[in-house]
Amino acid sequence: MTNNDKILVARSSMPPFEEYCEEVKELWDSHWLTNKGVKHRQFENNVKEYLDVDQLLLFVNGHSALECILETMDLGKDGRNEVVTTPFTFASTTHAIVRKGLKPVFGDIRKDDYTLDPDKIEGLITERTCAILPVHVYGNICSVDRIQEIADKHDLKVIYDAAHAFGVKRNGVGIGNYGDASTFSFHATKVFNTIEGGAIAHADESLSSKLAQWRNFGIASAEDVVYVGGNSKMNEFAAAMGLCNLRHVDSEIAKRKIVAERYFQNLKDVPGITITIPPDNIQSNYAYMPVLIDPDVCGVSRDVVFEELAKNNIAARKYFYPLTSDFACYTGMFPSSESATPIAKKVSDQVLSLPIYADLAISDVDRICDIVISSSSSVSH
Ligand SMILES: *Cc1c(COP(=O)(O)O)cnc(C)c1O
User: Fold this and answer.
1) Which atom of ligand 1 sits closest to the CA of residue 93?
2) Ligand 1 center to residue 174 CA distance, Å?
3) Where are the beta strands (DSSP E) in the chain?
């Protein structure tokens, strides 16, 4: 990529064109395009193995997976309708809770990894709480042991939004093995994609057929429809894309790692800039490159750095700003984020996600870092 091309925050991984053609060739011959065809079955099995989980189902996208697990666990049916969750996430997490008739109760995040702070959870639990829905944001792993202890003590379900965490491992254990369920996104912009797609990994085997039925209109058999389910099946072309991309995902992550390490090296000692380096026990997927710009030290706000990058044809993103609890569609529904989740508010005001993808040139990383450093140290000393 030349320096004149626009650099976006993410760039979809693509398999070699011929590999995809080869993969979908059979579909022309079979005329079987969706509804658990051969690609779907293979891919479901391959992802399950890759993530090293016991049960896994594919979905049309990560959001449908989230909605479906909330439905299938019958949350809200016993009168308990509150879900403790984080506002520092993509719209999908909070929308899924609200769209299923449940009530998000927002807990603050930790300032070192931006995940839901376990110390803040118990204070939010009431007799109406039914679940905790944390997010492994940027692929950073939540405090899974502490969260499980709290859930066990209060009889709550734990559902992780693992949309950012494909392939992440903690002490060698796949991220999909924590809590009652974890949902993944295979959207084009994620580390691993099926164009659009998603999955649920879940602990309770008895939930598998129920989830499969909810995924397909609640149909149990040709003449027996047992749930008011929607349609969230993955089609054969998406599954074929997944089969191809899965063959390359390890090398894509290895390339991301090289890019990430250059960012760490360039930015870790810059005053006023915070960059998160994964701890030793975590096998990261280097999904995002968030940095915090502290205006008290830098003398300029995150927005100034954002604009300076934009002027240079570099599209960083303010992931995640605003907090979901501050969205226009939720006006008046939740306590102010300044008082309820002050750390999340502060992080969301300071965060900037810099471009990262497998083929991002190191020279471009250096150029991006130079702009970040020069524009964030414009204060005169
Ligand atoms: C991308 C994303 C989702 C939704 O996934 P889709 O596949 O786009 O529907 C959910 N949660 C988070 C945190 C995400 O980033």
Assistant:
1) 11
2) 19
3) 56-59, 82-85, 103-106, 129-133, 157-161, 169-170, 173-174, 181-185, 198-202, 219-221, 224-225, 273-275, 282-283, 289-293, 351-354
Give the model's pLDDT for residue 377: 84
**Strand duo 157-161 + 181-185: pairing:** parallel
For 40-61, the pLDDT digits (tens) are 999 999 999 999 999 999 999 9
92 within ligand 1 shell (Cβ under 6 A):
yes
Query: Which DSSP string do the residues of 246-272 spell out, in sequence order?
Result: HHHHHHHHHHHHHHHHHHHHHHTT-TT
Which of these, 156, 143, 139, lies nearest to 89 by C-alpha position? 139
Q: Would the CB of 90 count as within 6 Å of ligand 1?
A: yes
- Average pLDDT over the chain reads 96
This prediction has a pTM of 0.97
Kind of pairing, strands 273-275 and 289-293? antiparallel
Q: Would you say 292 and 351 are in contact if contact means Cβ atoms under 8 Å apart?
A: yes
Q: Which atom of ligand 1 is nearest to the CA of 96?
A: 10
- Name residue 132's beta-bridge partners: 84, 158
